[in-house]
Amino acid sequence: MDIPGFRKDLPNDGGSAFVQAMDQATARVFRLETGKAGFSDSPGPLKQTDLKTDISIVSAGYFYVEPTTGGDISLTRRGDFALNPDGFLVNGANEKVLDDNLQPLQLPPFNDLKVSNIGEISIEPFDGPPGQYVQVGRFGLTSAVGETLTKHADSHIRRFDGSVPAPDQKVTIVQGMLEASNVDAVEELVLSLETQRQFEMNIKFIKLAEDIDRGGAELMRLPQN
């Protein structure tokens, strides 16, 4: 809930399987999951921070990042950006943010930073005239319209085959705002309570079935002298 732009995980498709032991009356039930797990693409609430490096997507779409683990390029909605000591733009997870050519964004020293709603990055250079801005890059953005995306084992968002859609720059962003996680704490608490009650009810049914079986066995038992 505290990670900006986090996408809520959804359960993937699955079913149940029964494993029956030889010469025993008991059986074990296992949950089977098929395919990749999905996630909710509903937007999270926007928070105004007024920080020049906080960028939020306000339409469908994603930023491109280079994971710190060295894996394939992935997608994210996380926009809490900052400059690392080498001048590369990174997010709060220290992942390098990529431009529209899918290369890491590296910015020269600047006094001020402006980002347009289509992702153009302009700076007021340290050694330039005051109030004069120069465009130095552009965020790589994809709307991912019509794409089926999933979270992989490293928790990063990509297509099922591990690739990412090509940049289409059809995304609207705003500066000075941050998108929060789309996980609703109240909703998750209610679901947790409902799941707990359902579990307790199932345990009671199992105990009741056990009592009925035991009672039937006692009725059928031959009288003992």
TrEMBL record:
Principal subcellular localisation of the protein: other
SUPFAM superfamilies xref list: Flagellar hook protein flgE (SSF117143)
Keywords carried by this UniProt record: Bacterial flagellum, Cell projection, Cilium, Flagellum
Record-level GO BP terms: bacterial-type flagellum-dependent swarming motility
GO cellular component: bacterial-type flagellum basal body
Keyword NAD among UniProt keywords: no
Subcellular location: Bacterial flagellum basal body
Chain ranges of the Flagellar basal-body/hook protein C-terminal domain: 174-214
InterPro entries per UniProt: Flg_bb/hook_C_dom (IPR010930), FlgE/F/G-like (IPR037925)
Top-level taxon of the source organism: Bacteria
Keyword Magnesium: no
PANTHER family per UniProt: FLAGELLAR BASAL-BODY ROD PROTEIN FLGG, FLAGELLAR PROTEIN
Similarity section: Belongs to the flagella basal body rod proteins family.
Protein name: Flagellar basal body rod protein FlgF
